[in-house]
Write a structure and sequence with these properties.
heterodimer; A: mainly beta; 11 strands; globular; B: mainly beta; 4-stranded antiparallel sheet; 12 strands; 0% helix
């Protein structure tokens, strides 16, 4: 499967625990985006990364959320001390050269906080 | 700031009916891209179409067609002879030109389409 791979597809956490969501972009893509979809809402931009760099994190909540895209390995979205309001679907998207705005989305990771 | 409005929250049709999903957008840029994505019940996002702001030609792909009208800032999506498998949430999205080397999509809230047999 040459598409954007996200895991886990479903994650259940209790309040206060940490959630780690992983995203492997399409082969040859060096741009990664994370979007969040709250229940019955559209997707909202969170963060844009290139290898080893956070380029735009204007959509990230100021606390508890962080993202990285290391030189080797997948991009990771980390949520510390999760709360019920973090329950959502988190989508990763990748693109090669970003000149067209076209993003290739993964299947999403659904986080449920109990 | 850019904005995408999908005024129809939910539409129900019977199979074989035609249905149009509306999308109105706001942007200050003269160069931008418009998208439609489909999200079936399984949850993944399926890319349907991309249109750049300089190309106002309507497009048809099988039972799908798109009507882009810059004068009214609308990018509507029509499904002809709808089928049960078309049942999904459909999102319209806008991307401004990536002058800074990247762009982000602004999504509408989506329209849920229910096609019954």
């Amino acid at each position: 499967n040459a598409g954007v791979m996200q895991n886990p597809r479903h994650l259940v956490r209790r309040r206060g625990q940490e959630a780690r969501l992983r995203c492997s972009p399409m082969k040859g893509h060096s741009h990664v985006y994370w979007y969040r979809q709250l229940p019955e809402e559209g997707l909202k931009f969170m963060v844009y990364l290139q290898k080893e760099n956070i380029i735009d994190e204007s959509g990230m909540p100021k606390e508890r959320f962080s993202a990285e895209f290391p030189k080797e390995g997948p991009s990771i979205l980390r949520i510390q001390q999760v709360v019920r309001g973090d329950s959502a679907a988190y989508f990763c998207a990748s693109s090669p050269l970003d000149t067209s705005g076209e993003l290739f989305f993964g299947e999403g990771s659904r986080l449920t906080v109990l | 700031a850019q904005k995408v409005t999908q005024a129809q929250t939910e539409i129900s049709v019977v199979e074989k009916e035609d249905v149009t999903l509306d999308c109105v957008y706001e942007t200050r840029d003269t160069t931008y891209y418009l998208f439609w994505y489909k999200q079936p019940p399984s949850g993944e996002l399926v890319f349907l179409i991309r249109r750049n702001s300089f190309d106002e030609q309507n497009e048809i792909s099988g039972r799908y067609s798109w009507n882009f009208q810059k004068s009214t800032s609308s990018f509507n999506f029509t499904i002809t002879a709808s089928q049960v498998v078309d049942s999904a949430v459909y999102f319209c999205a806008l991307s401004e030109a990536p002058y800074s080397g990247y762009s982000t999509l602004t999504f509408g809230k989506g329209t849920m389409l229910l096609v019954s047999p």
